[in-house]
Write a structure and sequence with these properties.
2 copies of one chain form a homodimer. The first copy, chain A, has about 110 residues and is α+β, with helices and mostly antiparallel strands. A 4-stranded antiparallel sheet of chain A has the order 2-3-1-4. In chain A, helix 1 runs antiparallel to helix 3. At the A-B interface, strand 1, strand 2, strand 3 and strand 4 of A face strand 1, strand 2, strand 3 and strand 4 of B.
Chain lengths: ~110, ~110
């Protein structure tokens, strides 16, 4: 699995979603996985990077080719259901930041 | 500890650093913690969010008030030493994206 998204040359857009979960885990993993799969099918989707540490902080960054693509995904029916459930049950708090990616560098270790 | 950074109203800047580590752990945690403390002392620093999951993917997002502040931190002597060691020993691969944060939303669950 390619954990680091292979995005095109900038400019493009990123949504940084930083979250702390509640103790209610019921249905969360299934919904999170379904949302990643669904996001990847949307117009303008470029990639996603997601991780959650032992301290409970989760960071998911999704990449999009335009603000319109982000808005389209935000309004998607199944995503709206997930957002409502997230606020009601799964998230203690979160921050969501919409950004314009302006400069990118990649590093890949050379194999010996 | 406040895991989610309490940043001001946009616009401001974010550096998204996504990485996969090598198996060389020698000195890494100490250096990473030192860099977080040092970054927080730099002019223009607004906050940092960082986590690494069991799958080995790490995402660190630092927030800054200007591109000049990001460049100043990039050129900091101790940070340059850490960057060199990171490329030489600690990182298998990484992506570094510099972004302009344009829109932000926060959610905080109400206490019962």
């Amino acid at each position: 699995m390619n954990l680091i998204a292979g995005t095109p040359a900038p400019p493009y857009y990123a949504v940084i979603f930083t979250s702390v979960r509640t103790t209610d885990a019921d249905g969360y993993d299934e919904m999170a996985e379904h949302m990643v799969r669904l996001a990847a099918e949307q117009p303008g989707f470029l990639g996603i990077e997601s991780t959650r540490g032992a301290d409970g902080l989760g960071i998911t960054v999704s990449y999009w080719d335009s603000l319109e693509a982000i808005e389209h995904w935000r309004r998607h029916g199944e995503h709206q259901v997930a957002q409502t459930a997230g606020r009601a049950r799964w998230y203690e708090r979160f921050a969501l930041r919409v950004c314009r990616v302006e400069r990118v560098g990649f590093f890949q270790r050379e194999t010996d």
